[in-house]
Amino acid sequence: MQLIDQKTKKIMEGCKERALAAGLRFEDETLEYVVSNRDMIELMPKNMIPTLYDYWVHDVEVLREKGKYELYPSNPYETVINTRPAISFYNDNNPDWLNVMIFYHVIGHIDFFQNNLFFRHTWEYDLTGQALADKRLIARLRSEHGRWVDYLIEFARGIDNLVGYHAELARFNRTETGCSSRVDYYFDYFLQTIKQVNTSEYVKQIELFNDYAREHGKLGETAFLGDVLKKYPEFDAAFEKYRDNYKPESPDLLQFLIDHSPFLKRDENTWMKSVLQIVRTTSIYFQPQIRTKIMNEGWASYWHETLFLQDDRIKGHEVEFSRVNAMVTAMPRVGLNPYALGMRLFHRLEEMADRGCYSYDFNRLQDAEQRKQYNRKTGQGREFIFRARENFCDFTFINSFVDQDFIAANKLFVAGQRLNKERMVWEYYVRSRKAEDYRQMLFASLYHPPVIEIIPEKSIDGELYLNHRFEGKPLVNEYLANTMLGIEYLWGGPVRLETSDGEVPARGEAEEEPAPQVTWTRVRYTMQDRQLSREVLT
In which order are the strands placed within the sheet that holds 2-3? Predict the structure, then answer.
């Protein structure tokens, strides 16, 4: 692994100038490395962070990837990580023209990392420096405590998908608003629950608060609350009563164990908290990348195509570019390509916003031909996609913009699979062309960890009682025993988990027979003395 040469660096600095002129915003300092396929294979298990802590599973994944590479040799083009400065890696087999195209793709990623609000908690955070400090700490602890460090990492990583990412994000965004808890209580609870005002009155109060903030700056909140007390003299007493009875939302499971585990509070075990905190912090850092995969790749693909086609350095490589670009952004008939779907959504948004289709007048139209011909020539398409890039994650992006018009324009459908009994082969068929069905298929592919709540009132006699907030998907049974074993060790006592298990009745062979309905049963798993038991709750 080595830094790119000065010739390539000069080319990439030219790409930055063109990207900034097009409206992208990112920090000027970046680092680019040339790596071999072997380097890529060794870095991938560490999420391309060379300084990430060592862990035996990383070595296993490296061996697996090396085996796959020997069977199916391939050349990954690039990867980029959200650090300060942003670091990107380029395969040593890439020609110069391909590096230009790839760097535009990388710039799209960097712009997304540094402007999308779901990455807000990473903007002032040097991951590589922190990861190096964490790696050294774990290496020192491993020299002192041996294999127990690896057990701790394994137990912590078994539940690191349950970290409180949204709570962390809310803390950063709430700081920027400058609103006190009194204002939050007034709008979130007092008006809606106690006074139950209608929508128009609620909107008027928001506008009044904004007027005070614009006119008086930092003193606007005080002036606004003065008016509130004139209108509602009982407000202060209601707020004090609410604050006295307020119970803050319980922390995520990892943080709860760090703060409250009797086992970890013992003097001989306090060092374990550092390991758990490292795993938790690293997981929170990577959460937005998991939740914005379609948007992030779509945004980068949109810009590598848009900027590279305008670049004079494409001359003589048009056919090669078309081939590589088609491989990256082709929309499969079956399955999901996040690059292709995200890029087409951004192109669709830009076109629709240019025509003024995100308006009340357009939504009123019922005639398909009128909707097709509608065009107000607003010229606001580019501005609209920049706002979308800033404010959406994959779920809200899909939920807001994958509509029937988008499905029809791209000829998308949900594929089904059935057995052809005559030929004894599986065959695919078009199951649905409805936008709602396609959205549900996309939702099913998104990252959605289970919600596990700590129930203090049931955590008695040294037990830890957990509740799985059931959302229609069961926990994966094959992971329950090992995961709860780790939680029992970290807690230092029995662990109970309440969840829902599904039972599917046997199905006959008749093709016209409807799909069986799943019966959900509330159950409780108990891990005690490293033994897992299950009981049905009535």
Answer: 2-3, 30-35, 86-91, 78-81
Provide the H-helix boundaries in 116-198. 127-145, 148-157, 165-177, 181-185
Burial class (CB in 10 A: 0-12, 13-18, 19+), 272: buried
Query: According to DSSP H, which parts of 44-126 are helical?
Result: 56-71, 96-115
The 10 Å Cβ neighbour count of residue 105 is 24
Reading the block at residue 78, the tokens are 């690039």
Strands 425-432 and 464-469, bridge-based pairing: unpaired
Q: In 3D, which of 119, 32, 61 has the Cα closest to residue 391?
A: 119
What's the CA gap between 418 and 428, in Å, rounded?
7
Instruction: Residue 171: count other Cβ atoms within 10 Å of its Cβ.
Output: 12
Cβ atoms of 239 and 145 within 8 Å: the answer is no
pLDDT, tens only, 464-520 = 999 999 998 899 999 999 999 999 999 999 999 999 998 877 655 544 445 668 889
The whole-angstrom separation of Cα 74 and Cα 58 is 21
Please report where in the chains the tokens 């938790």 appear, as a residue. Answer: 280
- pLDDT per residue as tens digits for the range 376-412: 999 899 999 999 999 999 999 999 999 998 999 999 9
CB atoms within 10 A of CB 303: 24
* Residue 425 backbone dihedrals phi, psi, to 5 degrees: -135, 155
The one-letter amino acid at 334? V
516, amino acid identity? P
94: how many CB neighbours lie within 10 A of its CB?
A: 17
Domain residue limits, the chain: 2-116+299-327, 128-164+251-288, 169-245, 330-445, 451-536
Q: The whole model's pTM is what?
A: 0.84
What is residue 76's DSSP assignment? -
Residue 97 vs residues 8, 14, 105, 303, 479: alpha-carbon distances, Å: 10, 13, 13, 16, 47
Distance between first and last Cα of the chain: 60
- The pairs formed by 328-337 with CB atoms below 8 angstroms and a separation of 24 or more are 328/301, 329/301, 329/305, 331/410, 331/412, 333/415, 334/415, 334/428, 336/442, 336/445
Residue with tokens 């001989």: 268
CB atoms < 10 A from the CB of 221, how many?
18
Neighbours of 480 (CB within 10 A): 16
Distance CA 473, CA 443 (A): 13
User: Could you count the other beta carbons within 10 Å of the beta carbon of residue 119?
Assistant: 21
The CA distance from 53 to 433, in Å, is 46
Max CA separation in the chain (angstroms) = 80
DSSP line for 348-384: HHHHHHHHT-SSHHHHH---HHHHHH-------HHHH
Range 363-381 burial, b when 16+ CB lie within 10 A, else e: eeeeeeeeeeebeeeeebb
> 414: which strand partners?
432
